[in-house]
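Q: Structure tokens for this one, please.
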Amino acid sequence: MIYRFYPTYTTEMATSELLRPKEAAQILGISYSTLKQWVYHKKLRTIRTAGGHHRIPRVEMDRYLHRAGEKPGPARRQNFRAISGRNQLVGRVVEVRIEGLLAQVKLSIGGQQITSIITSDAARELGLKLGDKAAALIKSTEVMILRA
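A: Here is the predicted structure, written as tokens:
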């Protein structure tokens, strides 16, 4: 398939998974029409197919995943376990590596990556997979992972 790129096209976008606008809207928790407006107003960079259809690279969505359709406060965390910690950062799982007693989990949050080392039992219990929505709970020097 042949793709045309906007001037802001990056190499990272080329290696990223491409999503249809309806899929991207569902992942971001916004309406399809809102996503299309973001595309038309160039708030969301896309790749165009030879037929002129927009495809959204998953890495581009990371810039909006933490705030799309979500207001700050308790309502933002309604799909997560009730917990008193307020330092929760919502993002997407980009890597899960389980070796022995420990697991390394990387989340992409607003274009940045955060890594947490948790027990392998906890990682298996959470059932985290690439692309899952999860939250990092920051407490002092510790980072805990919550499954959506």
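A few notes: The helical segments are 11-15, 21-28, 32-40, 58-65, 120-126. The chain has five helices and nine strands.
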